[in-house]
Amino acid sequence: MTMRPLVLLALAVVLAAGIGGAEGAGECSVRASAMAQQLAPCLPAVRNPQSAPTSSCCVGVRNINMRSPGCVCSVMSDVFKLAGLKPQVAIAIPKRCGIADCGGNTFP
User: Fold this and answer.
1) How large is the greatest C-alpha to C-alpha distance in the chain, in angstroms?
2) Which of 24, 29, 33, 62 is the most core-located residue (most Cβ within 10 A)?
3) How many separate domains does the chain show?
4) Cα–Cα distance between 59 and 41 in angstroms, integer?
5) Is the residue at 91 inside a domain?
6) Is residue 106 part of a domain?
7) How many CB atoms lie within 10 A of CB 63?
8) Does the residue 51 lie in any domain?
9) 105 to 8, 13, 72, 74, 101: CA distances (angstroms)
10) Residue 103 has pLDDT above 80, yes or no
11) What is residue 25's DSSP assignment?
12) Alpha-carbon dihedral of residues 17, 94, 67, 70, nearest 10 degrees?
């Protein structure tokens, strides 16, 4: 992984923590920075929709979904949008991992 994606994800962590406050995205019960750290392994799958998410990516998505059910789709959208990546690709990751289907959900 090159340094640029890591820098973008680090920036997203900082922005998500600042924008979302202490609780992160909406109804989530965990901090945005902790969620973004767990999603770092998903970066290649978000950048290339044709690649399969890694097992560590799916573990991170599963952990977020278990800790705060119902927020994983919003978190995927928020974190990767702040990193300058397409949120519509990011919200497909939970389904690609077999965890949750964000379906027709739209996020600002």
Assistant:
1) 34
2) 24
3) 1
4) 9
5) yes
6) no
7) 17
8) yes
9) 25, 23, 12, 9, 9
10) no
11) S
12) 90
Question: Mapping DSSP to helix (H, G, I), strand (E, B) and coil, where does residue 98 land?
Answer: coil
The domain of 62 spans: 3-96
- Look at residue 64 and tell me if it is in a domain: yes
> pLDDT tens, 14-73?
444 444 433 444 556 656 666 778 889 999 999 998 999 999 999 999 988 888 777 788
**pTM value > 0.85:** no
Start-to-end CA distance of the chain, whole Å, equals 29
The sign one gets for the Cα dihedral 19, 95, 61, 5 is negative
Residue where the block lists tokens 């995205």: 25
Q: Residue 2: is its pLDDT beyond 70?
A: no
What is the spatial distance between Cα 76 and Cα 8, in angstroms, rounded to a whole number?
15
CB contact set of 9 (below 8 Å; sequence gap of 6+): 36, 39, 40, 43, 79, 83
